[in-house]
């Protein structure tokens, strides 16, 4: 694994780009057609799904399973107790109308993060956290 905080690869040719979802990046020779394949750890546990790769390098991008598990649980919640077909499931993705980038603590300090704030974030974050989310752009929708 190379990075745990990568944005999705840019899929301009298809007109679709994911945002505000951070992927695992690894140097691997993943090729087309393997999207959705599981990524397993040394103990044989599925930890991510193959999401895509870049043709200009040997980098592949993997979607961590916590996002998949969340969506699956929301879909399961739409089933009735007798197991019939689920109603249409709504998978909320947030409505902040902005995109974020993950920046390391060194970069956030250059952007003005105060030492006190960094210490609080490090204290309440999981061990090994490398940075914070920074607003990259506002998403404006015409009404």
From TrEMBL:
InterPro entries: Peptidase_S1_PA, Peptidase_S1_PA_chymotrypsin
SUPFAM superfamilies in alphabetical order: Trypsin-like serine proteases
PANTHER family in alphabetical order: PDZ DOMAIN-CONTAINING PROTEIN C1685.05 (PTHR46366:SF1), PRO-APOPTOTIC SERINE PROTEASE NMA111 (PTHR46366)
Protein name: Serine protease
Organism per entry: Aegilops tauschii subsp. strangulata
